[in-house]
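comment on this one:
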Amino acid sequence: MGAPAVPDIAGLGRHAGRLGFLALVAAYALLVAIALGTLVASEGLSLGRHPLANLVKTAGEFAHPSFLDVWLGDPRLEYRSDDGALLRVEDRRVVEADFLRQLAAATWTTFVIGTLGSLLGAMLALPLGVLGARNLGAPALLALPARAALDASRAIHTLVFGLVLVGIVGLGPTAGILAIAFHSMGTYGKLYAEAIETLDMNAVDAVRAVGAGPLQVFFNSVWPAVLPQFVSQHLYIWEFNIRDSTVLGLIGAGGLGLLISEATALFQWGRLATILIVVVFLVSVFDALSRRIRSALL
């Protein structure tokens, strides 16, 4: 008699994995279909009355960023009423030069908000990330609240923090700095905890074995090993927060967001184009610098 057939356990596992993946894809497709159906039913996909004409008009205004008026602007631009009466005359070159000075100050404010908010968030997150790292064995009474605080921090958007903080500390950069800090604290803490959890615990246990206390264990075995990752993570989140801080002015935190809000409210697409050029330039320069620093750490 031949030997009994041995079931192909690995093949069955792969088959079950494919079925599970297909089930997830089907569930996702159903979710997308329901979402689209809901929008169609509520007429939420409407493009407006004249989308193409509006697009062409807006694109034309974006194609002439306002900073060009410093050189090409009309030195005697007249504003007249409907009946032709002269209301005022302005020199577009002088007006735009004044706007560019405001833009420079707002750009610095945005950079300050992103920078100080990132630093404060990193400092607040460090003890929470250490407590939340499962391999360090922090007491549950400390570890569970630390993880909950980090989860809540990540779940609440920066703009929501900003709206609340503007009501508490008032308008200005302070609200923006705190909003950036409180939201990014959750991201910092999660990344810190994950970096610590990838450590080789033999080195940590060796320091513990000689009678070192918790702080000595952290600063002698944990901190030196994770510091390069912490710096790299800080640079990445700092870069993200520079982008995020550009919109905080929409809620009164100052910086570029305030100018964006004014430009959109007045339909000044040329000025908005100038602001967006500055935003892209700022983020691109910071991205290049942080990438160089991160590569140097490897």
Observations:
- The chain has eleven helices and two strands.
- Strands lie at 77-80, 86-90.
